[in-house]
Amino acid sequence: MELKQQVLEKEITKINNNFQSIIHSSKISNDKTQSLREGLQLNVNTCSLLSAAENLLSLTSELKEIHLFYNFENTNKLNLERKQELNTKIKEGENLIKNINIKLNESLFELEDNLEKSNYS
After folding, report:
1. Which residue among 8, 55, 63, 83 is least crowded, i.e. fewest CB within 10 A of its CB?
2. How many CB atoms lie within 10 A of CB 84?
3. Distant-in-sequence, close-in-space partners of 12: CB < 8 Å, separation ≥ 6
């Protein structure tokens, strides 16, 4: 990752330097030779700027891929946390079902007792 940071800084520096050179080369002068040389320099700097921008775009894409596909530590941590949350909810649900079952059984016994008492009365 440190290497990627160095490449990023290098490409940004290239873009900045080439942009400054383009601005410097774009000055208009009366000397035709000077204008021709500056025009050629402008083309070279523009190509270098585009190359650096393409490299930066490629690096950005690569960093996205690394983050999405190779960030296993963070993904595993999130999955483990989610698993623990779901296990807690499962246990809460099981306890709720047990409590409902106990109350249902108590209510059924009470109903049966009431029914038997009413039949014998």
Report:
1. 83
2. 10
3. 56
Rounded to whole angstroms, the Cα distance separating 73 from 56 reads: 26
Residue 1 pLDDT > 80, yes or no? no
In the three-class reduction of DSSP (H, G, I as helix; E, B as strand; rest coil), residue 113 is classed as helix
- What gap in Å lies between CA 119 and CA 85, rounded to an integer? 50
Location of structure tokens 């296993």: 72
d(CA 40, CA 46): 10
Per-residue H/E/C for 27-60: CCCCCHHHHHHHHHHHHHHHHHHHHHHHHHHHHH
Burial class of 52 by CB neighbour count within 10 A (0 to 12, 13 to 18, 19+): buried
Q: What is the rounded CA–CA span in Å between residue 47 and residue 53? A: 10
pTM above 0.85, yes or no: no
- Per 3-state DSSP, the chain is made up of helix, strand and coil in percentages (nearest 5) of 90, 0, 10
